[in-house]
Amino acid sequence: MNNTFIDLHLHSYYSDDGEFSPSELMKRCQNRGIRIVAIADHNSIRAIEEAKKEANKYHIHYINAIEIDCTYLGINLHVLGYGIDYKDKAFSSLEENILNQERAASAKKLELTNRLGFDIKQEQLDELSNSGVYTGEMFAEILLNDPQYNEHELLRPYRSGGSRSDNPYVNFYWDYYSQGKPCYTEIKYPTLEEVLKMIAESGGVSVLAHPGNNLRGDFEILEEMIEAGIQGVEAFSSYHDRETAEYFLRKAREHNLLVTCGSDYHGKTKPSIKIGETGCTINPLDIQEELARRGLL
Predict the structure, then answer these.
(1) Which of 143, 185, 201, 252 is 20 to 30 A from 158, comparing alpha carbons?
(2) Do both 27 and 142 map to the same domain?
(3) What domain count does the chain have?
(4) Are residues 14 and 45 in the same domain?
(5) How are beta strands 36-39 and 65-72 bridged, if at all?
(6) Residue 184 within a domain
(7) pLDDT-derived band of residue 272, with 50, 70 and 90 as boundaries?
(8) Measured between alpha carbons, how far is 57 from 219 in angstroms, rounded to an integer?
(9) Is it the case that residue 216 has pLDDT exceeding 80?
(10) Residues contacting residue 223 through CB under 8 Å, at least 6 positions apart
(11) What is the C-alpha separation between 142 and 128, in angstroms, rounded?
């Protein structure tokens, strides 16, 4: 996976599946040679103030960001908002609403997971969660580290050498807790149109995150999203192979969209993903110039 000095998609522990503090992330960015960075936590802006202060110490250019869950035509999407006014109350209200729903859904996730043939206790989850939200990655961490399940057939693909062992925790999430899977619990997210409006009203730029993942192979939907007002696309992502990245790069250039690159680094939930490894195949100076043109630098 190609390295670059730009990484616009990191997660801190203010994301329920992130591992590190904003300060620790900035230190790691410094060690990896990152000069332009954004922490885009799930539906949260709480990392921004701390991250900005720490980034300044290392002479790293920090861009305010958030990653918002939303829906379009029944598809769950992630939209990145860059250059937002993070003090806009719309973002704190969004976080509170989704957090309350996630807490309520967590008990159902526990019930559904145990129906698969496990016996996880709530106390085990509370040791991993500081918010009362239980994620698919947390269930995976408990199960894959519990000796009583060493030979469990369902877990075999996520163990060393298995077909899903590259990022076992997050792959377990995608396979069992994402939309349409056995342990999926519905959260009522805002619509794509509502999110685009929220980002625009805060002075930000909206970018579709890792579209190769969320569009389920129906990439042509991007055309409709552009009509709805999406302003950019994360063409380069740790999830995209070269063909996928080239497709979204081509579409972005056809429609004069902002092209971004992001690793989606989380820490332990995605151990094969490293800061700065975004798969970027173009000169990162081109992305830097585009960011400047959009008023983000």
Answers:
(1) 185
(2) no
(3) 2
(4) yes
(5) unpaired
(6) no
(7) confident
(8) 41
(9) no
(10) 251
(11) 9
CB-based contacts of 195, cutoff 8 Å, min separation 6: 68, 70, 79, 81, 206
Instruction: Please give the mean pLDDT across all residues of the chain.
Output: 95
Question: pLDDT tens-digit profile of 125-143?
Answer: 999 998 899 999 999 999 9
Is residue 73 a contact partner of residue 2, using CB atoms and an 8 Å limit?
no
Asked if residues 196 and 79 have their Cβ atoms less than 8 Å apart, the reply is: yes
Above 70 in pLDDT, residue 263?
yes
Q: What CATH number is attached to the domain comprising 200?
A: 3.20.20.140
**Is this structure's pTM higher than 0.70?**
yes
Q: Is the pLDDT of residue 2 over 80?
A: no
Domain carrying residue 23? 6-88+190-293
281 within some domain: yes
The pLDDT value given to residue 269: 84
Check pLDDT > 70 for residue 101.
Answer: yes
Residue 209 φ/ψ, nearest 5 degrees: -80, 145
Say if residue 48 is in the same domain as residue 195. Answer: yes
pLDDT digits (tens, 9 = 90+) for 29-81: 999 999 999 999 999 999 999 999 999 999 999 999 999 999 998 889 999 99
The residues, any chain, with a CB within 8 Å of residue 217's CB and separated by 6 or more, are none
Backbone angles phi, psi at 118, to 5 degrees: -115, 175
In a domain? residue 183 = no
Is the confidence at residue 193, as pLDDT, over 90?
Answer: yes
- On whether both 222 and 172 belong to a single domain, the answer is no
Which DSSP helix (H) or strand (E) runs through 208? Answer: strand 205-208
Distances from the Cα of 170 to the Cα of 164, 223, 274, angstroms: 9, 29, 14
Q: How far apart (Å, rounded) are the C-alpha atoms in residues 288 and 268? A: 29
Asked whether residue 134 is domain-assigned, the answer is yes
User: What tokens appear for 208 in the block?
Assistant: 């579709």
